[in-house]
Amino acid sequence: MNSKQKLTIILLEEYENVNLYSFQFENEALSEFEKFLLSFKDTHPEDIGTIMYRLERIVNDGVFERHFRYAGKVKDRTAELPSHFETTNLRLYCICVSPKILILGNGGLKSTRTYNEDEYLNNCVETLRKLDFELKTKEKSNIIFIIDKNITGDLSLSIYDGK
Amino acid sequence: MEESRKLITPEIKQNVDFSIDIANRIFDILEMKKMKQKDLAKLMGKSEAEISKWLKGTHNFNIDTVLKIQTILDEEIIQVVKTSKIVEVLNWTERLTIVVSGKDTSVSNSNNVEEAA
Fold it and tell me: What's the pTM value of the predicted model, to 2 decimals?
C-alpha cells in the first residue's frame, strides 16, 4: 500500500535574481533545508559555511546547471551540491527548477560510492524526484505557476511512498 | 539560516570564489571560442567527465593544470599581481620614466629598459 506524505513548498529567501525555496512536511516545524543545516552545523561547520557561501554565489550569479551534479534520473531536475572541493562527503540535494529558482532539500554524509546505496540519501533524492514530478504535473494543470523567480498557486502537494 | 551564514569565514569565501571564478572563466573562454567541453577534453588528454567536474567550481585546481589550460586555450585565466617598479632610464637626448607593471609595459626604447632592469 502506498502511503501519502503532505508537504508545502515554502519561500526561504528572496533575492534580486534568484529565489530560494524549500519544502516542509505536514506536522513538522522546520523545512527540509533547515533540518539539514541543524543536523550538520555543529559537526561540520566548515562544510555548512561552504555550502552557505556557494548558495550566496548562486543567488548572485544565477542557478547554472554546470555548477551541480545531477543526482536523479534523466528527466528530472534533481541535483547535488557538493560541500567543498569534493574532498569531504557532505551533500545537499536540491531541484534546479530554472536559472532563477532553486528548491533546497535535505542531504547528508555520503559514505557509499553512490547515493543509491545509502538508504537515507536515496530517500532524500527520491523525495525531491517525486516533488519535481508533482511540481511539473501541477504546472501543466495550471495549479502551480512558475513565473520569473516565483512559484505561485496552491503550493500544498502530496507525494507517495513507493515507486 | 542566519546562524549557518555566520560559519562563512574569509578562507571559505576565498576558496569558493577562486574555484568558481576559474571555472566560470574557462566556461566563458570555451563559449567565446565556440568550443565544447569535449574539445577541451581532447586537447588536454582528459575525459569529458573530468572537464565537466572542473566547470562545477568545486575542483581544487593546481597551478600546472591552470597553466596548461591557459596555453591550450591561448587565453589568460589568472593574473599574478606584480609589485610596480619605477625604472628610470636615462637617454642622452631624453629622460624617460617607465612604470613596469605586469605585462603592460609601454616602452619605446627596449635596449635602455633592459640595461636599467
Answer: 0.80
Which residue, among B48, B25, B26, B53, has the nearest Cα to B37 in the 3D structure? B48
Domain with CATH 1.10.260 in chain B: 7-73
Which residue in this structure is represented by grid cell 568558481? B20
Instruction: Tally Cβ neighbours within 10 Å of residue A114.
Output: 10
d(CA A135, CA B78): 42
CATH of domain B7-73: 1.10.260
Asked if A127 contacts A160 with a C-beta cutoff of 8 angstroms, the reply is no
CATH 3.30.2310.20, applies to A16-157? yes
Name the residue facing B7 among A48, A57, A85 (closest C-beta): A48
Distance from CA of A113 to the nearest CA of B (A): 17
- Is any Cβ of chain A less than 8 angstroms from the Cβ of B27? yes
- Predicted pLDDT of residue B117: 39
Read off the pLDDT of residues A60-95 as tens digits, 9 standing for 90 and up.
988 888 788 777 676 778 888 866 556 678 889 999
Q: Testing the interface with B: which of A67, A69, A87, A89 to mutate, by most B Cβ within 10 A?
A: A67
Residue B12 contacts A, CB cutoff 8 Å: yes
Under the phi-then-psi rule, with left for phi > 0, alpha for psi from -120 to 50, and beta for the rest, what region is A5?
A: beta
The answer to whether the Cβ–Cβ distance between A85 and B60 falls below 8 Å is yes
Mean pLDDT across B11-35:
92
Q: How far is it between the farthest Cα atoms of chain B?
A: 68
**Cα–Cα distance for residue pair A151/A101, rounded to 1 Å:** 8
ipTM of the complex: 0.83
State the pLDDT at residue A4.
86
